[in-house]
Design goal:
mainly alpha, 4 helices, flat
Amino acid sequence: AVVEQVIADSKASALAHLPSGHFHANAAWLTLWAMAYNLLRAVGALTSAFHAKATTATLRAHLIQVPARIARSARRITLHLPHNW
């Protein structure tokens, strides 16, 4: 059951967009996907029990995509985060 979930997650994300018909480019893309997938799973397991079982899309929405705005003023970069974040 775990293998089917990994395959479904991969088809819904990075492996749906393999870059080309060249073997080496696809091999590099697959290697980068595997590293990113494993890192995301480790972060999800460290975060909570809910995130340990969540799909890749849910982990990206909850942990990776930060609702912030970058502003520059007086040669400084400021990151404006939501108040409840």
